[in-house]
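Troubleshooting log. The previous structure file for this entry was overwritten by mistake, so regenerating from the original sequence record. Sequence copied from the archived sheet and checked twice against the printout by T.R.
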Amino acid sequence: MDTIRNSEYPCGEASYGIWNSELALLSLLQLASPALPVGAYSYSEGIETLVEWGAIADARSLQHWLERELQFGAIRLEAAVTIRAHNAILAGKLTDLNYWNSWLSAARETEELRNSSWQMGRSLVRLLLELQPQLESIFDAVGNLVNYAIAFGVAAHCWQIPQEAAVLGYLHSWATNLITAGIKLIPLGQTAGQQILINLQTHIVDAAAKTLVLTDDDLSSCSWGLSLASMAHETQYTRLFRS
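Regenerated output below.
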């Protein structure tokens, strides 16, 4: 089994040849955990607006919204960029990290969505640098404003989480956060929220599989509903969430 030392590999010591699936799973659970201190709980990605409008009023309508976002929405782009961040480090092309970070920033339709991605990215970068200071060279290559999907992809690669698992974890974490927001806003019971998450499992698996094979030319989304909800949220009179 070959070991690449810190001086040669910016993620620190990385062992190849034997894949430790147990450690990779534990790392993924940590990275996708709601307890990860990145502030995800403070964002609803337009759901607060949709609840006020009555577009989301119960468990069924919340699930329908999340299903359509997984199938057509901007979350697909975030997951795809996570893969590209993973690949950029694997190939030693750190300039690609800067490109995809800038690309994703430009793809965010509203200031709220862009700021939420930057804030969560900044929090995750801070945490990762405290855990593994040698990652500084990677994030220096990205730039000052790091999107959450980029930071997640860097962590997934450096913690030796397979791409397939990383995408599933990213989408599951996103769904969990928005279901939690829906539980507070509609409101719903915790059991209803867990049922939605179970019902979304096949949709998450399908979205992950399709995202893994997306080419650069196929990176697109139909997210005008999210954009309108996000823009309206900026001027909403009473707000519990930051997006």
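Residues 1-9, 13-18 have pLDDT under 50 and may be disordered. Archived copy saved in two places this time.
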